[in-house]
Amino acid sequence: MNKVWLITGSSKGLGRATARAVLEHGDKLVATARHVEHLRELTAEFGSQVALAALDVTDPVAAERAVGFAVGHFGQIDVLVNNAGYGTIGALEDMSIDEFREHIDTNLMGTVYTTRAAIPFMRKQKAGHIIQISSVGGRIGVLGRTPYSAAKWGVEGFSEALAKEVGPLGINVTIVEPGGFRTDFAAGSTAGAAIRAEYQPTIGAAARFQAEYHGNQPGDPARAARVLIELSQMAHPPLRLALGSDAFKAIKENDRKRLEAMETWRELSFSTDYSAR
Known about the structure:
The chain has a single domain, classed as Rossmann fold. The chain has ten helices and seven strands. A seven-stranded parallel sheet has the order 3-2-1-4-5-6-7, sandwiched between helices. Helix 4 links the parallel strand 4 and strand 5. The radius of gyration is 20 Å and the shape is globular. The mean pLDDT is about 95.
């Protein structure tokens, strides 16, 4: 049976690749972006199979409107993909509070708003799948990306708790953690502010690597999109999925080191328990 999808950030990157894959698969789609003119070619090619909705994910009213539009237009919503997001590189002390908050508003709160808007419809359907596009940065703190990592770690905690909340209602939640993909994310991840000399060996090096990495990432967005479709067809999809060999290796190694560190400090951790007297 054909599914109805809503994808945030459909105009570029993984969102655009997924939008096209969904439509080529024969499903229906509400494609969203802040500026829908960037999505017109989808309607020209796929006609009534796709509907467009303007959506700034930082606006909770707009999120409710977009989800309501999807249900009103196609009669249901089966898969929500929270893809919209961005990240810049810089030192925490050199970015404004407003810049930090903008990362949280888009990457975390935007996910919360659209998820919250979709749940009542999925609950009534007793079915649905919420796919959260997180990042390796949602499992590993990334140098020079404190607000982005803070937001993506928030998405992961929010989604893990949510899965326990809505799973009994028939709603699946999957957190997807991409590594490097050949999208425009790296190109758009420029330094948010001038990087001062003290941070050049660390954050400066990360920024330079990011610029060189653009176009050389191992991940293929079209293949990632096909994985998201495969996830949507699973009766029991995973809670988390590392996307890409680089993501898998980095997360596995980081988790190994984390477990080793826990064991190193086991006695100190246990020392806070009440002792029998």
